Amino acid sequence: MKSNALPTPASIMLGFGLLVLAAIFSTLQTASAQMHEACPQTRGVTPIPAPQVTAQQVEAGTAGLMDFTREASEQFKLVSQQSIPQAYYFACLIRQDGGPWQSGSTYLVQLTLDGRVFVHSRDMTMSGRLLNPVILAEILTSLGVSQADVAALRNPATARTAIQSITTTLNGEPHAAFDATAPVGQRPGIPGAKGYASVYKTARRPDPIILLAGFDMRRAHTAQEQIDYGDPAVTAADVVDRESLKAFVYEAATYFGEMRRAEGRVGISKAKIAMRDRTDPGDTTPCTSTCWISRPTSS
Q: What's the whole-model pTM score?
């Protein structure tokens, strides 16, 4: 190919797919290693001091969850104004098990206004998943969102208007404790669904971000969704050489693009779920989650 030739749509998709897969697989492959290795500081990255209130202190009961969450919000806000490498460095720090930002059930989860997990610092396979609407309602109302807006958020016909109203409320960056573990009316309590929420805004995103801490968020806390896991002609288990890897990446990029075109940001989240899921979704699609992640064979 000539050096000044324009990239074809296929090459663009392939390159995009490589980036997508690199992001997905790197989180799975490096998660355990990051528990024991220091986060690398590349050129231009400056040290980020440990918080004045650490996750260990919260777990030990010698400091409050509110102070820890609020300090984390301010650090996220500061990092968002800095370079991308600086943001990656902080993202690594908050994933360090036993580090000052994560200990026991005290770790950080970023949530979008519609209830999708943006970042789960303990389990990246949770990213993109939709929070149980009952828990989301408890979080939003604790932050001052009206019951009417919470109800409107659940209706596809009124969800966009509800998001606008919720954004207005949360632009004030409120913070509060939430607790969905206790029964209310006809609603049963949800075990483990409590913690502290703090909202922060950045110049790079139009919507505020809800930061949660002290909430040990598991699969049981997420909503059930219909996920199209795809049916690629070349799966992860089929990759044995360069050519099969290229074919797999192309299939992944095609799938990702189709999900994005079909459902926009929701489709992107669902594609991330499918590509990170090691478990059998238990649905009737021709190909299960093993399309995108090859399970290790037992010896």
A: 0.79
CA count, 13 A, side-chain hemisphere, 122: 20
CA 255 to chain centre: 20
Residue 280: name the closest of 227, 220, 216 by CA: 227
Distance of CA 142 to the CA centre of its chain: 22
Residue pair 83/44 in contact (Cβ under 8 Å)? The answer is yes
**Which segments of 64-145 does DSSP mark as H helices, in order?**
65-80, 84-94, 133-142
CA distances (Å), 21 to each of 53, 254, 260, 296, in order?
A: 36, 12, 15, 18
- The token pair at 21 is 């897969």
Cβ atoms of 33 and 298 within 8 Å: the answer is no
Residue-wise pLDDT tens digits, 8-44: 444 444 444 444 444 444 444 444 344 445 888 888 8
Distance CA(268)–CA(245), nearest Å, equals 22
Q: Measure the CA–CA gap between 294 and 299, rounded to whole angstroms.
A: 15
Distances (CA, A) of 272 to 122, 246, 276, 288: 16, 19, 6, 14
Q: Answer yes or no: are the C-beta atoms of 94 and 101 closer than 8 Å.
A: yes
Nearest to 138 by CA among 187, 172, 171: 187
